[in-house]
Amino acid sequence: MTTLTLRAVPNGRVDMTGILPETLAGRRTEDIGKQIVHLAGSPLMLDDLFDVTPDETGMLVIRTDSDRLDYLGQGMRTGKLHIDGPAGHYAAQAMSGGEIDIRGDAGEGAANGMKGGLLRIRGNAGDWLGAALIGDRAGMAGGVVAVEGDVGDRLGDRMRRGLILVRGRAGDACGARLLAGTLVVAGGCGSQPGSGLRRGSLILGRRPESLPSSFNDSGRVDLSYLGLLHRHTESLLPGLLPATTHAYRYMGDLAFGGKGEILVLA
Description:
Number of domains: 2
Number of helices: 3
Strand order of the largest sheet: 5-1-6-8-9-10-11-12-13-14-17-16-15
Oligomer: single chain
Largest sheet: 13 strands, mixed
Order of helices and strands: EEHHEEEEEEEEEEEEEHEE
């Protein structure tokens, strides 16, 4: 399809809204170069910042050494987007289909309001991954996010559907206000995980630093669905989960109905 190569680090943040495989497909190179983006709020053409070259891979490739490209893949519905380098803030925001592969770190707010598709982050991710869009009452509503590294605070805040996998460690308030869905964090997390959790599962490879007092210790359990989850995650992040069906279960948040769970794999 097309390869966009950033010439130099921009002197401000770049809003990449609208630069998607579906919007650039079938267009001439000259036409793509005239697509408008915004640098620090001011409009300019895409080829003022990027070298635009045809690509026969069938995907949109963005090559960058800068983490100042925001809203990469926002609203994406189909196709493949490959980010060769770091992403800025709000990558895959409101994404509903297709596949985004970030070969570096991602900033804050990745997968906010995500509804479908697959987001891969080969490095680390910032705060509020898979959380709600500003003004919305619920966060990520579908799709899959797979992170090779660590993530920041408030992972999956208000998430209501979907699957988030993290090989590394999460920060504080992991799974806070979780409405439904599944979070898997192999490296454990910081303090107060699952605060305000209503439904859904937070699955941890290591016991957290502390648990809210409003969770009930249900002891060691044998859950067959953990075996199914292990097989599913092997295709996304091989080796993320051990092949076990045993875990220590904590039911809660009892202050919000107590229908969710935190599982610490045994």
